[in-house]
Structures are given as C-alpha cells and as structure tokens.
Amino acid sequence: MLNMAEGLARLGALAEAPVSAALARAFADAGYELAIVGGPVRDALLGRRVNDLDYTTNARPDDILRIVKPLSTATWDIGRAFGTIGAKVRGEQVEITTYRADSYDGTTRKPTVEFGDTLEQDLVRRDFTVNAMALRIPGPSLVDPTGGVEDLVGESLRTPTDPDVSFGDDPLRMLRAARFASQLGMDVHPATLEAMTRLAPSLSIVSPERVQGELVKLLATDAPDRGIRLLVDTGLMELFLPEVPALRLEVDEHHHHKDVYEHSLTVLAQAIDLEKKRHPGAAPDVTLRLAALLHDIGKPATRKLEPGGAVSFHHHDVKGARMARKRLQALKFDGATTDAVCQLIEQHLRFFGYAEGAWTDSAVRRYVRDAGEQLERLHILTRADVTTRNKRKAGRLRSAYDDIETRIAQLAEQEQLEAMRPALDGNRIQEVLGIRPGREVGEAYRFLLDIRLDEGVVEPEVAEQRLRDWWAARA
C-alpha cells in the first residue's frame, strides 16, 4: 500500500542524487526546465527499487547535447529523431528527452514525432496515469496532472486521456496494460478494460518485434499469469499467440480431462518459483517461462476422446514443438531462443517414463545427451509440470526426479558426463580405418558415441578394436 509520506521522502532522495542535482543545476543555469519522469517516480512512491532515471526537458536535442557534454564522459544521439539524448554522467547512464506531443496515424507502425512545449502536455500523452507523473528539479515538486497518485492508492490502471484516443495513438499500450497489471499488481480500470476488448483488432498495425518485446517484458515479471489472463479475456492474445487461448478446451459430461489452460498457468507459476529457488538473484529466464506457458499447446490438435470417458493427447509434445517454432518465428524471436523453447517442449515428457521404473545408466546418459545445454531448464520445467492434487502421486514424482538428478550428478562426477564424446575423434577414426572424410566417418562416430552412452567411458585401445570389428562386420 502506498505511504505518501514515505513516498515523498524517497522522491526527495531521487532529486538530491548526485547525477540529478548536477543535471538540474546545468539545465537551470542554461534557462531550461528538467524533470525526472515516468517509472522512476512511480516506483519511488511505491517503495520499489529504482534502476534507471529518465529525464524530460523543454530543451531541444541540440541544446541537451550542449548542456550535458561538459558533465559527461560519453554521449550518444541515436534517439535524436525522437528527442532523446543519452549520456554517461558521474558513472551513470542517463537519457534526457525533449517534451513530446507525438501521435500515430492509425495505419503505420511508427509515431509522428512532434516536440511539446510544456511538461503537462508531455505527461498527458503517456500510456497510463501511474506513469504520467514527474518530479521537477531542482525544487523538487511533484507534477501529476492526470491523477496518478490516486490511481496508485486505488491500485487502478487507467489511461490519462480517453482510452480510445490513447490506444488509437499506440495500440501496443494495450499489451503494456497487461504487463503493468502483472508488474504492479493492479486492476485495469473498467473503461480502459472495455476499450482494450473493443479495440483489440487495432493491434494488427503494430510490428511483430514490438509485440514480442512486450510479451518478453510481461513474462519477466514475477507473476505474469495476471497479465496473460487479461490478454486472453480481452481477445488480444488471440491476435499474436492464439495457441494460448486455444488451451481452454471444452469438457463434456462424458469425457473429462485436466483444464489445460489453468494447468499451463500453474506450470508457469511453479517454474518461476523453482527458477528463483534454484538460481536466486539471477535474471528472469524468459526462455524457460515461454516453454512453460507453451509446453502443452499441442494438446488441442491431438485430443482424442477414448471409450469409457478417457481423453488422450498422444504426441502432443512433438506437435506442440512444431507449433511453437512457427509461432515464435512469426513473432521474430531469435533462433537460439526458438530452438531452446521448442526443444524443451518436445522433451518435457521424457522424464515420466523414469517415474514408471528406474532407467539404466545408459538411459540416464541419453537423457543428459538429448537435453544438452537445456538440461537445467528441463529439470525445472519437468518438476513444474506436476500439478496433480493427489499428494501421494505428487510426492512419488518429486522423489523420482530427485533420484534422477542425483544419478546425473553421480554419473557426471564419475564420467565427465558434460563432455559426452566418444573415445576417438574424427581424425583418429580416419587413421584407424584408413578412410577419408565423408559419411563413413560420421557413421563410425555415432557407433562409438552409442558405446559411450550405453557403457560409459571406455579406453581408447578398446574403442579402436571395437571400431575395427564394427568396420569389418559392416564390410
């Protein structure tokens, strides 16, 4: 809950920070205004950690550069067209932007940039009232023309102007609403929510890259399920990730199965909890979280109603991986992220065979080999995928996975499991068999790798003899 007295004290500390004080003096001496704006003001009032400070001013970009150069060790003007100048001042990276009055024309994907003349004008054009507050410096004084403080108190997310106008200016703000709802734990104001539902189709003018960026930011929050539900309920998710709302499968009176949509959100939440416990202080693992959200998207396409009321989803792991690849590519995710997510989806069921009966060492090695660099994420995803309310079953699965992780650790210590290579490399294979590079070398390498997986470490001399025997039998 917002404590206004404490919040104002934190705002005062922001204004008195060395970088803010130095910039405030420089801009005032040059005859210009300066204010800390947006997220830092909001987070200071809420008592949340403030990372980067954003500043706004009535100075134009050339004037900003002229003022900050004497204070900075470096400057950059890559955002000059949008009125933004970056600088490194007293060891901290800052961005200073000219008051804006930009808007979108409703058909293109880029804003028309117009510089504004007043701080209030700049604030009113921002996305939500809680982000439309500023702290004038020096002074300092809080500027809140749209009621952001009241909305912080009421935990309400609302646009500063008519939501039709705000979302018409930039439809991506509808996705930001979902992100801030999760990040700040707020409810979307009814009028804003209604506009999101009605204007959802306008998201089509926004580039896939910008949509992907907001999805990543949402998944990086501590509780993204709140925002995901909002996107599904308003119809926005249908426009860029339809596989998620499709998880809401109908259940009839004769065939019963777990609610796949609710299950997926629970898996996502449990994966985040495990991620934090196993890697405290690490950055949010968006790749893992994407895999958790999408791990069952193959179920709607593979659902089969069996006699007696059972429901099956055979090969939904393979189907889901293919679907995920197509969707992530459409959203312009990079290849490494796409490959990792799809691999996790395809392999997320592998462990459950272990739970039915202990694997041989060979099977454990193959599990590690197939998971590769995704092994730790697969550990977390597989554990998170247990959402049964049957405590005995959940305990049995948890114990089984404890066991497989212990065996992996033991084998790794004994056999250098992470270096899962055969005893002979390609060059030695060619020397032993007297052959040139080609298909046969690859076949021989796979033969030796199978020995490594089935039997563990073998001595090079033994490997050479078995290779010769295999080659002779093959011939």
UniProtKB/TrEMBL annotation:
Gene3D superfamilies (UniProt xref): Beta Polymerase, domain 2 (3.30.460.10), cca-adding enzyme, domain 2 (1.10.3090.10)
Enzyme Commission designation: 2.7.7.72
Cofactor(s) the protein requires to work: Mg(2+)
Presence of keyword Ubl conjugation: no
Taxonomy, superkingdom: Bacteria
PROSITE patterns in the record: HD
Entry keyword annotation includes Metal-binding: yes
GO MF annotations in UniProt: CCA tRNA nucleotidyltransferase activity
Record domain HD: where: 260-381
EC class of the enzyme, as a word: transferase
Keywords of the record: ATP-binding, Magnesium, Metal-binding, Nucleotide-binding, Nucleotidyltransferase, RNA repair, RNA-binding, Transferase, tRNA processing
Pfam name, any one: PolyA_pol_RNAbd
Protein name listed in UniProt: CCA tRNA nucleotidyltransferase
